[in-house]
Write a structure and sequence with these properties.
Blueprint (H helix, E strand, L loop, with lengths): L4 E7 L28 H7 L11 E6 L3 H7 L8 E4 L4 H16 L5 E4 L5 E2 L2 H15 L4 E6 L10 E9 L5 E8 L4 H10 L2 E11 H11 L4 H10 L5 H8 L8 H4 L7 E5 L4 E2 L4 H7 L9 E10 L4 E12 L4 E6 L2 E6 L6 H10 L7
């Protein structure tokens, strides 16, 4: 019998790492950051619909204030498939609730594919091949994750150490030996030297039955809350029930809550052109093929004199002279000028704005 897949897209990010373009009211997943005219959320859906699932088997869980925006951007997806969280309680709450909801709607044999809304994947064909291989392993009772072959000793990601090969599919499937926290640079270099470690991109695939059993085993205190929430979905009491129950759910990531505690876990190496676009510098890497002969990526009317290796975004004319390795992000109410090497420090700007009560800029 053909496997039934359902894709769940958590889309609850707060929108700080790509400030000032990404804001709380429109985080990066709702912007056309990479492809003009298609938001990151839409591109995530494009990769799976209709090749892997039909629109009725695509589900999104997001902040309640963004639910209508999701429905507008994914207008082919049934409105009831978009679930709004009144408050964020991290990824375990989101994924556990959706597993409980899918158990009721589609049954425990359904293979649930969890895909973040704000990642770039440049090779959709290889991505779908990896998901197909993951679905095969999931049907055999595994919790599967896609592992990104590391290209540098990055300290910003968790790592997955593979063990024995358990399938000869293309791509192959490996047993997971261990999950590792974000390492130091020296340790990350050691990981790369072994050739057995992957970046953890937060993409998980398992049957609804496996997800539900893992939550029941490792986070049983959430079960009663999930049951109450699922029972309210589609009823007149849904909004009130969610506002009453959701804030009570334990705040913990799905990695800490269940994935790292599971015993039957597999990893599939995924050479898919992946990038989490966690900073303006990472975005510049994604858009490198759009750079001019001087290494400048400009989404603007830009005139540069002796300008190299820079990223520029503006709706106005931008002129630069004698600069290199620069990031210029201009919006109607905010301007960021930064060195490429410091773009991840934009979080310090956001923290300062919060501390000063400048909410209108967030």
């Amino acid at each position: 019998m053909e496997k039934q897949l359902a894709v769940v897209i958590p889309a609850g990010g707060g929108g700080t790492r790509l400030w000032p373009r990404s804001r709380q009211h429109t985080p990066k997943q709702f912007l056309d950051i990479v492809t003009p005219g298609r938001t990151m959320l839409q591109e995530t859906a494009d990769r799976v619909v209709p090749d892997l699932v039909e629109p009725e088997n695509l589900f999104v869980i997001t902040n309640a204030r963004h639910a209508d925006l999701v429905r507008k951007q994914l207008d082919g997806v049934p409105a009831e498939n978009v679930i709004g969280e009144p408050v964020g309680r991290d990824s375990a709450a989101a994924i556990g609730l959706m597993a409980a909801l899918l158990e009721k709607k589609l049954g425990e044999k359904t293979i649930m594919v969890v895909l973040p809304a704000d990642h770039v994947i440049l090779d959709p064909f290889a991505f779908r091949a990896a998901i197909t291989a993951a679905a095969e392993a999931a049907s055999n009772g595994y919790l599967v994750t896609l592992g990104i072959p590391p290209t540098s000793p990055d300290t910003g990601f968790g790592y997955i150490q593979r063990g024995e090969q358990i399938s000869t599919n293309d791509p192959p499937t490996y047993d997971v030996r261990e999950f590792k926290e974000k390492p130091s640079k020296a340790v990350a270099k050691q990981y790369l030297a072994t050739g057995t470690y992957f970046w953890n991109a937060g993409m998980f695939i398992a049957t609804v039955k496996v997800f539900r059993s893992l939550f029941n085993e490792h986070l049983p205190e959430m079960e009663e809350q999930f049951a109450e929430l699922v029972a309210s979905v589609g009823t007149p009491t849904q909004k009130d029930t969610f506002e009453a129950v959701f804030p009570q759910i334990k705040k913990i990531s799905v990695d800490y809550g269940i994935v790292e505690k599971a015993t039957k876990v597999a990893v599939i190496p995924a050479q898919i052109g992946w990038n989490d676009v966690g900073s303006w510098t990472r975005l510049a890497e994604v858009l490198a093929d759009k750079a001019d002969e001087h290494g400048v990526v400009a989404n603007a009317h830009h005139i540069g004199v002796d300008t190299t290796d820079s990223l520029i975004y503006s709706e106005k004319l931008v002129t630069t002279i004698g600069v290199s390795g620069l990031i210029v992000i201009d919006t109607p109410d905010g301007l960021l000028i930064a060195s490429k090497s410091r773009s991840e420090d934009v979080k310090q700007i956001v923290e300062t704005l919060k501390a000063e009560g400048k909410e209108k800029f967030l």
